[in-house]
Write a structure and sequence with these properties.
The chain contains 5 helices and 10 strands. By secondary structure, the chain is α/β, with parallel strands linked by helices. The radius of gyration is 15 Å and the shape is globular.
């Protein structure tokens, strides 16, 4: 079930996780790297700037906001928790990630390799204000392009 925290709808598990975390204070990025070791964090807002899987780019403005506002820190940590608990797999998927932009918006991106060796790039803007799970929104967009199938509630299988 989705719950609203700040301007985002996140899972109940994500909110519980974020509220239970202790933070070291000013080193927000360091805290995130420690709490979510399966994700590769970078500062910025450019798509396709990461390599491999599980990339998360965060705007420096959002990191500063998280540093100065405990409620925003909980909101974004809950959002990142939901990102980290998804299992995205595909033999053709070469790289994927998420971007939290300057305004706090969320975008997803992916690069897959087709059987003929060509690559396909997909960018999706996600509405974290929608009660519908933003993961489901991403899946709907990918399904519309016939490049994704849901294997389970927490698994996305990109077929590209």
């Amino acid at each position: 079930m989705a719950v609203k925290i700040g301007n985002s709808y996140v899972s109940e598990a994500a909110l519980s996780f974020a509220q239970s975390q202790e933070n070291s204070g000013g080193n927000v990025l360091g805290d995130l790297k420690e709490k979510f070791p399966n994700l590769k964090f970078q500062v910025g807002t450019a798509p396709f700037s990461g390599s491999g899987l599980n990339n998360v780019s965060i705007s420096p403005k959002i990191l500063k906001e998280m540093e100065n506002n405990p409620e925003k820190r909980v909101e974004y940590e809950a959002l990142i928790y939901d990102i980290s608990t998804q299992n995205v797999t595909s033999p053709n998927l070469k790289s994927h990630g998420f971007i939290i932009d300057d305004a706090g918006g969320l975008r997803g991106w992916g690069i897959s390799q087709n059987d003929d060796g060509s690559t396909k790039r997909v960018k999706v803007t996600l509405d974290k204000n929608d009660k519908k799970s933003w993961w489901q929104t991403l899946l709907d967009e990918l399904n519309a392009k016939k490049s994704a199938k849901v294997k389970s509630a927490n698994k996305i299988n990109l077929l590209a």
